[in-house]
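User: Fold both of these, please.

Assistant: Here is the first one.
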Amino acid sequence: MAQLVGNDEIEPQIIELAEIEESLRSSFRCHTSSSTHSSGLSSGKDTVDDECASQWAEIDRLPTFERLRSSLFDENNGNKVDNQGNRVIDVTKLGAPERHMFVEKLIKHVEDDNLRLLQKMRRRIDKVGVELPTVVVRYKNLRVEAECEVVRGKPLPTLWNSLKRHLLDCTKLVGLKSQEAKINIIDDFNGIIMPRRMTLLLGPPGCGKTTLLKALSGNLDKSLKVAGEVSYNGQQLEEIIPQKTSAYISQNDLHIPKMTVRETLDFSARCQGVGTRAEIMVEVIRREKQARIVPDPDIDTYMKAISIEGQKTTTQTDYILKILGLNICAETLVGDAMRRGVSGGQNKRLTTGEIIIGPTRALFMDEISNGLDSSTAYQVIACLQQLAHVTDATILVALLQPAPEIFDLFDDIILMAEGKIVYHGPRSHIVEYFEDCGFRCPERKGVADFLQEVISRKGQAQYWHQAEQCYSYISVDMFSKKFKESTHAKKLDDELSLSFMECFHKNESCFGMYSLSKWVLFRACMSREWLLMRRNYFVYVFKSIQLVITASITMTMFLRGGAGSFVTNANRYLGASFFSIFVLFFDGKAELSMTVARLPIFFKQRDLYFYPAWSYAISSTILKVPLSLWSALIWTSLTYYGIGYSPEPARFFGQFMLLFSVHFAATSLFRFLGSVSRTMAAAITSTSFAQLFLFLFAGFIIPKKFLPVSIISEVQLWLHLSVSFLQHSVVSSQPKHPADQCNFSSVVKLAGNTTIGNETLENRGLHFSGYFFWISLGALLGFAILFNIGFTLALTFLNPPRSRAIISYEKFTQIQGSEDSPNGAEIEPKLKSFQKTTSKPHKDRVALPFEPLTLSFQDVQYYVGPLKKLQLLCNIAGALRPGVLTALMGVTGAGKTTLLDVLAGRKTTGTIEGDIRIGGHPMVQDTFARISGYCEQTDIHSPQITIEESVVYSAWLRLHPEIDSQTKLVCPIYILYTSLIYSSKLVQQYFILIAAFDRNL
């Protein structure tokens, strides 16, 4: 490029660069002269300063693209003894150790150093007058409504209810009215989420927090009806792609269990791109060059490193790992309920890090502190607060029961209940607002707990402080009406009535669907699929060994030669070919389960616009081609000559290509069925029908000429495929007669100038011309391509399976205004009968008799690993006494779950050492399992049964057989009913109930 510039243009540039170099030298001299410890070192430092200045001048001479990637890097990690370690580097070529040491240098203490880093970056940007993009989220008259089907009896998606629903849908076409109920999940919401402010969303479970977050982030279910307006900087939600401006962090942790924490974050960063960071960095560098400003080398290196898109591993990943405390488990597999991996708190932080690693400016977070200890939760929320205040991010976080120190980190509060807003305004005014309503928060009471209890029926009365007035329950509707009349609501209405005057900057919202080019996203998906194939090597090795064993048995069963007529040998060859085809066909069935297991993670990343569906489908298809070639090669090499097919190489490779196409078409078929079915139960059912079609119409069990003409006409296409690949595996690979070495189709001529071979093939309907081999091969590959196209379309347009909302007729009448309470009326007689059974003398009053036992453990140690043992528990000792409630506390990853697993006898791997005693006797797991209950943090339950059915089933299995049936039925209902009244964490209480029905509780 320098050769294209004229001499008149070169001279001003040379003069300008010389002036910049001289200013750099002078600035470095001034900077180091103040920190010189001895005059004897001054000359050496001047030399170093001149070298650094020349290096900065060298960076400034580079073209814009290269200047964005080049920075001055300190190889000595800040060691001031040796100043000779600075060098100009390409930030994209930093190795993993260098990135790790660099981030450790920037952030040693997370809370303080992270704030210092963000402030330095902000000062650098503000110094040159570059503005960061901001997002103002406004919503007005927002309503979310769900249509529910009304049924009599239990509101469950049974077969009869589903049939009635379809019949009622048919009545809609005729014009008749069907009985449906409409429930308002969110009712008339108005508000503004401002940048540079942390907003807390509070409310009891089931009040609509998740629905509000999804509605504001554009991730709401399509079956819900939305009314009102939601805008980003004045642009309506329908006019932009909100997923590229905002991000919704779900409370469900969905990750690929075979990937490590670092790999998960790297893939997320690679797909989300860098957003406006590159444009901002280019403008900052340009203005710094004009103003002759020398940036901090560390800040310059970091900002440039996170502004380059398309990297496989980034410095941003190390930064997120550090601030979220995940660096200790960065190389650990994520795991799931069946595979050992990271802890629940680490998994929750990974869900948060997967989203905030991207460039989105608005974050909507749903219960991100569940499973975290108080210190870790505070650290995460503190980092988010720094991100909002320093970088002008817009953050809305929904928390259930935040600690007081976490509550104080927020600027604004949104308090909601029963789908209505109770308060929306500054955090500092909320206590004063409720005092005006007549409720005062005690001095030593957490404000968040006070807010949760003051809007509930059970906990409201204790906070009433207006003694001159008689207390009466204030409902949520009354709170909501009072808020709409308050000054906070009027201020919001005034702001919403004003139009958004600022220009909608093109960088503040993304109008494109994906952040990167399609080729880069395709490469990212290919890289991840290759990684997962290497992680799932056991499956493919096992399948290969299975094929080898099956092929060896097949070769011995259909061994070449042998006595018998030629007709018998012909049938034997046909049977061997039929068996070979179906072994290769069913070998691809493993794709079914792997496809269905990956769908939840795929749907999550697809809805967040990480990558298009076709990139995932094509990459998984391409990488399965070598596996199909390998499977066909194993089978053909072991069985072809052993069975006695024609030894010609052309015929060998012909059968090899046919079996490859069969295997490839089968894997494509199973992937397609899995993507369409979306659940394992439906996938297995659809696969059974596919197997039935193949067995019936393959032409071996029932020849073609014996099939009815009507059936043949209906399945002609499928029959054509099945017959063609079967007959060509026989005809194209013709075996030779052991006596005269003649072709199968030309052995033993009969009357009419035909042969026994041709007659056998014609009886099976398999006698075709030789060129039909290529037609068959093309048909199989064509069907494979067709199945993969269907696989891609299914991934693109289908959504995760969701059942329609169903409510009972009693609930429907209650919504319409009935004062009857069906749930209370149904449980009340059972409670009375329970009270009658327990109203006995004191010694007979306990329904669940138990014997108090003491659990003691000493020097408990636990090791994992076959060779180099990793010690997870070290010399743990303690005692758990009856009547004493013991709390097990510790930070995330401290080993709490591991200790509970060891004490409960749930560890099936590793080595356990130490002494564990129950009531003074050594623990025997067979008997201890009958007197203990273990409530795990992993939520694993059958999705097809209700909560009541699950609790009753556990009671029937675990209660003593001497307890009568009535008590077994009433006791869990009583506990369930009372727990739902007094507990705010409904789901967690339900899991505790499952473990509570035991003989010692």
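And the second sequence with its predicted structure:
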Amino acid sequence: MASITFPSTTELYKTRKFDRLRNFDQCIDRGSFCASTSVFGADPASCPQSLLQKKKRIGRKQTANCFYFCIPCKFCLWNTCFTHITARHHLNPPVRVRCIKASVWEGTSTVAQASELIDLDECSELYDGERLIPEATTTGGLKGEDQALQGRKLWTKVFGKKRGVKKKFLRSGLKKCGKQIASKRNDSLLRISVDLENALSEIGPESSIEKCNSLLKLFEKSSDEKALGLFQWMKNNEKLKENSTAYNLALRVLGRMEDWQKAESLLQEMTADSGCNLNFQVFNTLIYGCYKRGLKEWATKWFHLMLEKNVHPNLATFGMLMNLYQKGGHLAEAEFTFGLMRKHKLHCLSAYSAMITIYTRLGLYDKAEVIMNIMEEDNIIPNLENWLVQINAYSQQGKLEEAELLLNSMQKSGINPNIIAYNTLITGYGKAGNIEGVQRVFQCLLSMGLEPDEATYRSMIEGFGRMDSYKEALWYYKELKRCGYFPNSSNFYTMINLQARHMDEEGVLETIRDMRVSGCQYSSILGSLLQAFERTGRLDRVPFILKSSFYDKIILDQTSCSILAMTFVQNGLLDEALQVLHDKQWKDQSFEEHLYHLLICSCKEAGSYENAVKIFCKMSKSILDINLHIICTMIDIYTIVGRFSEGEALYTKLKESNVALDMITYSVVVRMYVKGGSLKDACVVLDTMEKQKNIVPDVFLFRDMLRIYQRCNMPEKLVDVYRKILKSGIAWDEAMYNCVINCCAGALQLDELSRLFDEMHANGFSANTNSINVMLDTYGKAGMFKKARKLFWMARRQRLADAITYATVIAAYGKNGDLKNMRSVYRRMQFAGIPVPLETYNSMLDAYGKHDRIEQFNNVLQRLKDSACASDHYTYNIMINIYGKKGWIEEVANVLSELKERGLEPDLCSYNSLIKAYGIAGMVEEAVNVVKEMREKGIEPDKVTYWNVIGALRRNDNFLEAVKWSLWMKQQGIAASNS
């Protein structure tokens, strides 16, 4: 024992041996106590005989208000008294209150008696058999006004408000008594310290277990570390066999230290090594530690371990758990615990209240009513808390008649009228919009002799506020202030909204003054004011109100300025917002830049682009020159409104400055040039961006790059961007797959394109109609008709096939000469109700004409004429080509006439087909004249034109002229033969 050091007298005093958390642990650990005739965890027969005799001597009237401890202490003490210890260990209350009596015990200074002396103030938090009630601690730790305030709160809590009691007298009496108690307490601590020092020489390996337990109990109150050290010494000296008391004390220390892992191992050691039996006191100690700290998980774990060890919970167990679950709203755990409580046929009133409260908060009113019915089935006599939670449950769901019936039943059961019940009903009628009900309950409250409190007036204000009864709400608002109470934030908000709706600007100014007096932040006041006037559409009156109240405070605060300016901008009051920015009295360039950017973005989101431009023009030059985000946003706005020159000017200013452009800026500029129709400039911007190695495009910019390079017909750039996308490691989504397939179809190899398409489906993405059409065209041109048919059927099954899909398949079959399948797809297109486009007719005309199916050709031509489609140059060129091959010059002439009647002139392809037709018909001179006509109309002949002329000359045996044309073409650098 030489290694164990005891605390000094000063340490004992600092550790506050009368700590109420530790004291209540002792109560739960020992067994419990009796409240009136109810016993917490023990039968009345188990109380000491001397205690029962004292109970009889006190009398029936007084015992109703006293608590008796079923522990080895030799006195009884009411839990709400302020206790003190005299030199002879007398316990007397500092204030004379009714029904309070404390017995006197004379003791000596032995260690065991000193231990019992500490137990006199064990429980400053008592369990009344139904719920945990936090009461006042001993007055030894209170000084001056704090002590008096604590005493006043306790007096009010126990006896209610008593008129005629002078606060000054009560405060001075408690202050004087507190000084006496502190002095006497110091004397007691000195005596206890001497006892500990005397006991030090008497403790050794031969000491009894009782003596060691007494010393361990004292250490448990003074020093956790020393208590655990003594416990370990007792374990080493085999003094823990069947010593449940020592284990309980150690568990209490571990619970305060929140060392739950060690506590769990100590429980196993307690049963396995020391042969101790587990009971509810052991687990209650641990659960109580979790309850005080709000540790729901650990409390539940100890509870389930308790059940696994076949230890039956008592009322304290269920009370602590249900209160813990109620605070956190843990429904599942509460339902399980409540069901287990009823299974054990225990009736904890606070558990019923907790279940009703949880169900009410979660809106499960039907289940709350079920608990009320269960209370009747269990023959539970409700206490005040039970009545209140039931009234609240009915009021929350609007069943106010049932709530009033409960109130009447509560009063008939002998419970005095309670202000909380009436406040609950007032709140319920206010939410329901029942003015008569609110007024009736308030008058009933007064008739019962109750004095309205601040909650009453606040509820009246809120109730009339919801019903838009401004006069009544204003009267109760003034009455609340007259009684010396402060309105809460909800009252202020309600009054400002009412005054805004009823256009009482003077009242608004008065409410603002009250809010400032109560300590509300200016930003909070401003927010309430703006919301109220914004709802009524009278926001233009806010500047006048602010000028009369606290505008000078707003312009000094950054947050308030931001709120005010943003609200004005969002409601179209641009001049007022700019005035606020002009009047501001703070300087913070970074904050100002963010504010301007936020205002501009707000205008952009609302579609007020002109307001955004005005705000931008009002900015200072310093912000304009350096803020990349603002300039980038303005470029985007100029792009939206089509003012490309101004957007380009901002981009030029950025390039000339030293500001490093980021990826977003390049994206915005690229889209500006694309929308402006300047694809070359967009390509230049992209080239500039690619030179900067620190910029990596995002998904959206990559897609823009693909679209731009596709429209510019730059396949090499497309391949390069595709490889960068693969190397970037970005996640491919459905939009990216479709964009790559649509844009890179002509740049990538067919195998790579097909792999991408299959990969997209394997990853769970769906191809859009454009991607399907591109793949169909690719498969058709490559002659992969098996894949094309499979993809076509898939598009039809997924209802993605459109007119272009059918036209693409028809064109593929027509070019391949598969006229049967071409006609079949055409019929399916008609059956699907899809209008046949001109491209489909042209494909069929070309296919039938080239395969000399004149009858089908004429049928398609007739359908085209009967349809709403107007023939284009391609249609007429096909007809000229087909008729020319047949040598039908008259039909060719008719086609040319019809072409001119429609206001169309022959194009290069038309002239080439006409030259070829004239050559086949032997009209060489007309063929040569066509070339002259082309040049007269400004159409420059191409290689095909000269090939057709030479072919016409050769076909008609004009070889010399053909050679001349060939030589001339050679001199001009044009190939002379059509291979």
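The beta strands are 33-35, 38-39, 67-69, 125-127, 132-134.
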